[in-house]
Write a structure and sequence with these properties.
The protein is α/β, with parallel strands linked by helices and about 350 residues long. It is built from ten helices and 15 strands. It has helices at about 15, 30-40, 55-70, 95-100, 100-110, 120-140, 150-160, 205-215, 280-290, 305-315; strands spanning about 1-10, 20, 50-55, 75, 90, 145-150, 175-180, 185-195, 220, 245-250, 250-260, 265-270, 295-305, 320-325, 325-335.
Length: about 350
Amino acid sequence: MTEIYLIRHAEAEGNIFRRLHGQYNSRLTSNGLRQVEALADRFASVQIDRVYASDLCRTCQTAQAICGPKQLPLIKEPRFRETFVGSWENRTFGELERSEPEELFRFARDPEHWIAPGAETYEDYSRRFQEALTEVAEANPGKTIAVFSHGCVMSGGMHRILGIPHDASRCDNTGVSLLRYENGVFTPEYLFDNSHLSESLSTHARQRWWRQQGGSFNLWFRDPLPADRRFYAPEFFPQKGHRIRIAMLKEEAVGYVAYSGETISTLYLLPEYRHRRMGDQLFGEALIALRAEGASVLNIGIPTVNVEALSFFAHHGAALAQMDDVYTVYRMDISVPEL
């Protein structure tokens, strides 16, 4: 018999930026790194013989919870990668809700009938996951292994292998399932357990408040129109040459972000839309765009009196680079490391 701990990666950029990252190679958030520490504590006294992970950064980073303390090599297996979503890669959920709501519903609830241009089908990704999991189980008889993978492909794989309904297979970041494999059959001991996470660490718990509100808080972004000048109060006016993207909630403009080179000059939300995690999505729009242009470091300048903004960027893992009575500069590594 082989024991398999199947573990979803820790909280990554797409989870808080509200983007469908698929096989886009993103990194963990600062909260995700804290989840990795909690996961390491959970497995401190558990015997693990081998560790496998998809070859994307977010799973490889999460796997260090076991590889590091136990000094085990990480075996990368591309078939454990997240679903490739074709033309949907790295698009915001807000944009998909607006342009393709029926397909987005199928993606979440009925993936066997979901279609996106260039994407893997349910049959494609669930089969490759099942084949990889079966191979590593058969290669490790009598051993205990850990496999790190992703939410969508794991959901499809568990549906295929165990018959778990799609709407019952939602797994928190670093959620753990224990499967036993014997005589060609997988049997679950437990599924999707996140008991090692406090409420403040759990991604699902931190998103619960807006999910219970009903409706959507997912944003999409467009280039500015003349009417958007109403946002540009003098104290928020971005520097010349910075690109501006308008944040939209359904069809209503709610804020904007301005950025250039390695610098974010402005994140702005109308007051009535603050404290709803929308700032994370504005931040993500700028970070992803600047990374695509080749930036590996992000600089953020903030008036020192803006305590709320200082706290926001510190929470996201930005490091203090310079501070005086007037202006504070944070610096943040946004490169995606090879692990």
